[in-house]
Amino acid sequence: MQTRKLLRQSLAPVVDLLYPPRCPICGEAVGEHGGLCQSCWSGLVFPVSGEGEGNTQISAATVYNDTSRQLVLAFKHGGRFALAGLLSRLMLARLPVLEGKWLVVPVPLHRRRLWTRGYNQSALLAQEIARARGKTLVVDALHRHRATPSLGGLGKAARARVLDGAIRANPRHLERLRGANILLVDDVMTSGATTTSCCNALRQAGAAQVHIACFAQVMDEAI
User: Where is the Phosphoribosyltransferase domain positioned along the sequence (predicted)?
Assistant: First the structure.
């Protein structure tokens, strides 16, 4: 790991020369790859505090607004998967200390969407967070066994109906999930329907508690 880090550092000047670092939102020159320019950085809005109830808490890195939306679109639909480093660092800054053993679980994609997109953006974020916090990543702990249509334009109740029963715990990991503390990772939390479906599946599998970590969260004051 240390050798790999030193190699990246030694090659950084060459990479910067061939591919000058640019802000992933506006294209302005920045000091290093994976950073935002001052103007775009100032466009991010950070939540005042986390929220949640019972044994489920939420840590959102940013409020979903035009700036965070552009980052999400580039990461999720624009093939800019290298943005996982930037987005996960912002998420890590909002996460509390997770004492003891935790499993890091990404929100799953249906296999059809995974084949189309080529990667699960939530899994990339989960991988970065698990590595940084020294926690165990279980990338296939949840399974989206039924394809669901795009939730865009649907209200909260309609989203919940679409996702009802669509996500289940992977039978191969039931023993591992029973009694476990779970960090559930997603890129954007809109109405909460997807994460609620995931939380229900995890609780049915016997998880002790679930903490949700997302990059951006839609909030009433941000709409």
Answer: 161-218
